Amino acid sequence: MARQERALRTRRLILEAAASVFDEFGYERATIGEVVARAGVTRGAVYFHFASKRELAQGVIEGQFEAEAVPERSCKLQEFVDTGMVVTHLVPIDPLVSAAVRLSVDQGADKQMGIDAAPGWISRLERLLVDAGERGELLPHVVPADTAGLMTASWVGVQLQSQRFTGRADLAVRVSTLYRHLMPSVAVPGVLACLDLAPDRGARVYAEMTAAREAAAGEVAGAAGPEGADADAG
Amino acid sequence: MARQERALRTRRLILEAAASVFDEFGYERATIGEVVARAGVTRGAVYFHFASKRELAQGVIEGQFEAEAVPERSCKLQEFVDTGMVVTHLVPIDPLVSAAVRLSVDQGADKQMGIDAAPGWISRLERLLVDAGERGELLPHVVPADTAGLMTASWVGVQLQSQRFTGRADLAVRVSTLYRHLMPSVAVPGVLACLDLAPDRGARVYAEMTAAREAAAGEVAGAAGPEGADADAG
Fold first, then answer.
1. Residue in B150, B155, B160 nearest the CB of A178
2. pLDDT band at B19 (very low <50, low <70, confident <90, very high)
3. Is the ipTM of this complex over 0.95?
4. What is B68-223's CATH superfamily?
5. Which residues of B touch A107 (CB under 8 A)?
6. Where in this chain does the record put each HTH tetR-type domain (chains A, B) (predicted)?
């Protein structure tokens, strides 16, 4: 394994350990010592990649955004919905996403500024709404920045409520209820009628993304010649 | 002052001190010692009213619900909107409301169950939606429990976002945006057209409530005879 690849793997290992620590303890009570213990690396390795607890938290939040976007759709409002539905699907299964949500909601008094995933989500959603508007999918009164901010805020509130009441067991159903309430105020009727807002939408789109990723990996392995193809088959 | 009245005043003093401590430190870092110091009462007085930190937190959350309901309206969906708008108006000015919101959002790992204002708000809103349904104000697909839960969750998320981004300076505007997005999926068109969803709605309804309370106090003082009337004028 090349040195750079090894460094990236270590960085990912540290981020995942940090995510599990932040998710369990919150920002204030999290310690770098605990991250070191869980990552199974040296304290020096952690400090090589992240100078402070704050940088670790920032890394967790940014790590979420390295994840690829949902597949493009001809209907941009479906992409808008899919973006929220896939994150909803990932919260209970991806420690980085779960920790990013928790860090963004934490209200610790000592908390440093800038540890918040919301601004990134708001601009991602705002861009999709602007695209949707250019294609005539939006009702005329919609202000993309306002609707993107509201969607993000409401999603966070719904996530908190689901976590508190059912340990997230009904998260997908609650998020579907959120979209069913919001989209009629956003989409023109013809687009609204075509939107898939079902609770299992996130799981289906994520399966599609996984299949596409595996197909792409297979192609790369195939292009590498018989050796690569063998490795893929074995 | 009668003994019972004095006890109620002390209880209120303790709750307000507890609210300011919870609001500043969160549940986990709050101490009864700090509540004692801020209330200016003895430790024994605090323990006479509240056996533990958990009971203090519960008291803060219940204290919020002792507040009177918004004025009755012939349109129950306007009462539904007013309920959320008045709380929105109170969050920045009433420490009990602010602390109840913070306690409900706190995610501390050690946090005991039952410290959550949301269930009380959800049932209050659900009752108003059921009344609205009986008067034909709701679209046919609305499920009162689902919409009440979503409204409460979204409000909490919007409050967090406003606090994070602007220190709550734009809270009323953001909550108005929330209602403008949700109500078209809840109200029949004839009712929707009559709803007042303006950002200053909460302040106006609260002024109406204050005036009604002062008028009632004046009447009581008047009924108590010249002495009472003098006291009121002085």
1. B150
2. very high
3. no
4. Tetracycline Repressor, domain 2 (1.10.357.10)
5. 26, 102, 105-106, 160, 163
6. 8-68
